[in-house]
Amino acid sequence: MVRWRSGVVSSVGRRWKGVVTLEVDVSASVVRALAYPALTGEPAVGDRVLLNVGALDLGLGTGGYALVVALPDRLPPDSGDLSRSTGHLVKARYTPLQAIVLGVDEEASPHRAVMESVDSVDGMPVVVADLHSALPAILAGVGSDLSVAYVMTDGGALPAWFSRTLDGLQGHLAGVVTVGQSFGGDLEATTVHSGLLAARHVLRADVTVVTQGPGNLGTGTAWGFSGVSAGEAVNAAAAVGGRPVASLRLSDADPRPRHRGVSHHSLTAYARVALTPADVVVPSPLPFDVEDALAALSARHRIVHVPVDGLEAALKASPVPLSTMGRGLDADPWYFLAAAAAGRHAAALLA
Question: Which residue, 43, 47, 78, 338, has most beta carbons within 10 Å?
Answer without folding.
Answer: 338
